[in-house]
Amino acid sequence: MASTRLLCVAVLVAASFAGPSVAAAAPHFDVTITNITKAQTITPILVFSHRAGVKLFSLGQSASVEMEELAESGYLVDLMALLEANPDVGEVAAAPSSLKSGESVTLTVASGDLYNQVSMAAMLIPTNDGFFAVVGATSSMGKPITIYAPAYDAGTEANDELCAHIPGPPEVCGFGEGYNPSRDGAEGFIHVHEAIHGVGDLAASTYDWRNPVAQVEIVRVN
């Protein structure tokens, strides 16, 4: 089942995605993410609005199972359900498909006085457990901000760079293993990703990066 999660996540997310759910006149965040890597693909991106204090993760700490699923397979369903059940979260949205190098996507989530921050995350493939994230960003009404987001390592899987342990993309790694609950050999804590070193099946000359990996433009409307 672990190896099929990346396959099903795009279908599940696309099935539930019907464009921005916020009326044009209602307060909301418009969030535009651009993949600025040379050859990494970003799996369907999760974006949500929230009150101050809500965090997907903390650097130096162990990843939750839901974050491990995202970082190892791109699987969003459990994390979305967890966030939607949190009263400190306003609205949760997900992109309908993956984002290749140079591509952009815009997502909209409700804001208002209570939910005045926005966070996001998605896996990088091909990596073992790499992801990009922005946590707790905000902007003044009508004044866009731009954030250059780094990549993080979930610390839940050894970075062997072997396609057998990487869930895609299919043109690079086929459909290798996605989420695996074992954390044997992993660092055990979330940290800034060291990128691709060419120690396994991935050529560093193609798939390596130097942070950041995503450009994020956020504007608060109304």
Concise account of the structure shown:
This protein is α+β, with helices and mostly antiparallel strands. The chain has helices at residues 5-16, 65-73, 77-84, 170-173, 204-207; strands at 28-35, 41-42, 46-50, 89-94, 104-110, 117-125, 130-137, 145-149, 151-153, 191-192, 214-221.
CATH fold node name? Immunoglobulin-like
Q: What is the chains' assembly state?
A: single chain
SSE run = HEEEHHEEEEEEHEHE
Q: Which range does the strand content fall in?
A: 25-35%
* CATH architecture identity: Sandwich
Helical percent range? 10-25%
Question: Can you walk me through this structure?
Answer:
Residues 6-23 have low confidence and may be disordered. The protein has a single domain, classed as Immunoglobulin-like, CATH 2.60.40. Strand 6 (117-125) and strand 7 (130-137) form a beta hairpin. The protein has helices at residues 5-16, 65-73, 77-84, 170-173, 204-207; strands at residues 28-35, 41-42, 46-50, 89-94, 104-110, 117-125, 130-137, 145-149, 151-153, 191-192, 214-221. Helix content is 17%, strand content 28%. Strands 2, 3, 4, 6, 7, 9 and 10 form a 7-stranded antiparallel β-sheet that branches. With 222 residues, the protein is of the alpha+beta class. The chain has 5 helices and 11 strands.
